[in-house]
Amino acid sequence: MFPSLLIAATLLVPLQTSTDGQVARGRVFEDKNNNQTFDAGEPGLAGVRVSNGVQIVKTDKEGRYTLSVSDDTILFVIKPRGYRSPLNDEMLPRFFYVHKPNGSPRMTFKGVEATGKLPDSVDFPLYAQEEPKQFHAIMFGDTQPRNQKEVDWIAHDVVEELAGTKASFGVTLGDIVFDDLSVMKPLNRTIALLGIPWYNVIGNHDINRDARSRHLANETFERIYGPSYYSFDHGPVHFIAIDNIEWHENDQGKWTYRGGIGKQQLQFVKNDLALIPDDQLVVIMMHVPLTQTRDRTGLYRLIENRKFCMSISGHTHYHEHIFIKKANGWQGAEPHHHVINVTVCGSWWSGQPDERSIPHTTMADGAPNGYSTISFDGSDYKVRFHAAGRRRSYQMQLHAPEVVKSAASGESSLTANVFNGSEKTVVEMRIGNGTWAAMDQVRDVDPEYKAAYDREAKLLETHPKAFGRLSRPRLSGHLWRTSLPANLPVGTHMIQVRARDTKDRIYRGRRIIRVE
User: Is the pTM of this model over 0.85?
Assistant: First the structure.
């Protein structure tokens, strides 16, 4: 071990397999000539964190590090602010080195080829770049294509409209594909057209389902994307990608998944956070929502005393803001903000096709398919909902009768589905230029979505293969409702709705009704 090496964390739980006394050495350096090889005269970078999946060490003044490894270890650099890792031709960051001397076991989908003897030096090149305190990132929930046709839908529905994005990077929050892991490559090529680094989180449909241990379920993911959990800095923000897909044998002897992190990974997170200042915003990214993760309280204990921390997931195919509180086992002074992100594939690419022959694939909470962006400013952040193929201002859907009787108008209701709304959103309505009146948040099925579901179910009775059946309507976490004013005058009226979020952003919607 180099005498000036700073050991930032110690191994408190064993690696998956015996280390057999193996030690990896290498350096982190600034790759001045862009050949991804350390050359004489290129500066080593001091104080950069490197990990073997549990331990984290900092490089010495020459950029050197030492870490223990087993015959199945992924070494990775924790990208520091002001630098980027190499990118392959699919814009995937190459921040890792896989050490599997014997390669992956034979499975349906190819894993890692045998890597052979550990190199004398495992080096990580980095490249200097500007990373201001203000930036934004794209968050895709569940792209989940089954085949090339659905990759093409993603291209036309989402990727084309994002061309020219100013985002610093993007993330797919798991369920990158739908069990057929061969679809990962064509999807990667499509998203790469955005021209920005793209990180990936593992989902339950991204694993090797013929594996008979959690340890071997990620072999294809590791070949293509690298470690299934890792971290990096961008600007003033620290990002942690979590693998909470616990592949296990249940009581009936069936191999299946559940939301779980595991002791080894929790130790990595503990070691990682020990090096992050309390005033730095931490964003934790995962696939299964935190509230559905079996050992979530272990993670709670690591983050609940941090003033600046939020988390984001996918998986459920609806969009919701959750504030985790003491009743949920949280012990922090303030609730934890967890976002269940809108999905790119919506209701698994179901529903009637539109004029582009792409299913409308509205999610079961009545929100359209799409993606989010998170804008960062130091320790502050803002989450914005983007409906695929819609104008930026499309942030709500209103439901009211087409025609009402004047005498019975007070018996009719208005429902507003504010896609990015939460318990902290204030929603109001008015008729014409009247007085604004508060609407009440309700947990109910979106009536617009229920009508579409029923209408399409009827079509499928006679044309069962015309398109995929929508997901069953579910209770929505972002609905508001109120009664229309009584005795509305006969005529045509404009209903206006405005929603104000915690960042004082105001979203507006309109609906015209006739009164007879």
Answer: yes
